[in-house]
């Protein structure tokens, strides 16, 4: 199965990095297309086919992925529409805020398509990815979901939930990074060197995630196990809440989803 990635910036590039680690995908099965060739060189070096011609990339692929900024999706459609084979190919559109109706308006003779929103941890096969099938058969859907499941966890959903999913997971990884940065800076103020502080925070987060996964606990149940009455943790937590921690996170998520 040949997979074309049109646009290999932050998200497209991370996805190709993930694809290169999927056992069933050979580097020679991947075609990358991007105007700046410096971005495709690293994939060419490991055996992928690289081009600046979107038409060539789309013509050669069974699965055509488009990962350009949302306002450039129509331009890419205009470039590739003549070479698409609606009965043979699948289209994967990785661009925030693009609706199924918009795609059908821009590309009336479209192959079955998928709106797919991963996050940049796809490069480490640790993405939380949302997949919205449009006019696809169950087999086609299983194929695309299966591919993204190989690079983390893929959740089949509907278009109505895609914006919320994008916020929680794709933007969410930036929010998680900001927490890591904030806690690391706090650690430096408390006396650890920056790199040691970052490592402590990351291991603490990994432990938190694994604990919740292993026990199925609600986070607040786990918090109850840490907060000695009148102790250190509750003082810190309450101070964070006085500063608006939970409210700030929820307001941020809502602002991002608008
Ligand atoms: N970044 C993220 O975490 C996430 C991004 N997304 C979505 O992914 C899409 C891409 O975003 P992101 O990767 O961040 O953006 P980037 O700007 O990092 O990457 C976009 C890439 O598209 C290339 N490009 C521009 N025009 C064309 C064209 N006509 N044909 C082919 N390639 C082109 C650019 O190349 P050049 O630099 O040479 O112009 C660039 O490498 C967006 O629609 C975004 O909504 C979705 C989820 C998460
Ligand atoms: O910030 C953005 O618009 C893109 C979409 C999700 C993550 N990054």
TrEMBL record:
E.C. number(s) listed in UniProt: 1.5.1.2
InterPro entries documented for this protein: 6-PGluconate_DH-like_C_sf, NAD(P)-bd_dom_sf, P5C_Rdtase_cat_N, P5CR_dimer, Pyrroline-COOH_reductase
Pathway: Amino-acid biosynthesis; L-proline biosynthesis; L-proline from L-glutamate 5-semialdehyde: step 1/1
Ranges of residues in domain Pyrroline-5-carboxylate reductase catalytic N-terminal: 2-93
UniProt keyword terms in alphabetical order: Amino-acid biosynthesis, Cytoplasm, NADP, Oxidoreductase, Proline biosynthesis
Limits of the Pyrroline-5-carboxylate reductase dimerisation domain: 161-258
Top EC class of this enzyme: oxidoreductase
Subcellular location: Cytoplasm
Catalytic activity: L-proline + NADP(+) = (S)-1-pyrroline-5-carboxylate + NADPH + 2 H(+); L-proline + NAD(+) = (S)-1-pyrroline-5-carboxylate + NADH + 2 H(+)
Protein's job: Catalyzes the reduction of 1-pyrroline-5-carboxylate (PCA) to L-proline.
Homology family: Belongs to the pyrroline-5-carboxylate reductase family.
PANTHER family attached to this UniProt entry: PYRROLINE-5-CARBOXYLATE REDUCTASE (PTHR11645), PYRROLINE-5-CARBOXYLATE REDUCTASE 3 (PTHR11645:SF0)
Name of the molecule in the record: Pyrroline-5-carboxylate reductase
């Amino acid at each position: 199965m040949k997979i074309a990635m049109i646009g290999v910036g932050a998200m497209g590039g991370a996805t190709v990095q993930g694809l290169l680690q999927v056992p069933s995908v050979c580097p020679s099965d991947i075609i990358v297309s991007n105007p700046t060739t410096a971005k495709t060189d690293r994939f060419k070096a490991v055996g992928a086919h690289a081009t600046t011609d979107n038409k060539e990339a789309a013509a050669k692929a069974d699965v055509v992925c488009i990962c350009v900024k949302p306002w450039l999706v129509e331009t890419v459609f205009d470039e590739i529409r003549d070479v698409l084979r609606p009965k043979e190919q699948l289209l994967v559109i990785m661009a925030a805020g693009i609706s199924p109706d918009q795609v059908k308006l821009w590309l009336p003779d479209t192959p079955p398509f998928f709106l797919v929103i991963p996050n940049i941890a796809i490069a480490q096969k640790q993405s939380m990815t949302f997949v919205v099938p449009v006019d696809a058969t169950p087999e086609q859907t299983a194929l695309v979901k299966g591919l993204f499941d190989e690079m983390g966890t893929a959740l089949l959903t509907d278009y109505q939930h895609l914006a919320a999913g994008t916020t929680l997971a794709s933007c969410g990884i930036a929010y998680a990074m900001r927490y890591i940065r904030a806690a690391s800076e706090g650690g430096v103020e408390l006396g650890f060197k920056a790199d040691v502080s970052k490592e402590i925070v990351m291991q603490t987060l990994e432990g938190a995630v694994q604990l919740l996964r292993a026990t199925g606990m609600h986070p607040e149940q786990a918090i109850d196990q840490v907060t000695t009455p009148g102790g250190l943790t509750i003082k810190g937590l309450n101070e964070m809440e006085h500063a608006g921690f939970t409210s700030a996170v929820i307001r941020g998520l809502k602002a991002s989803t608008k």
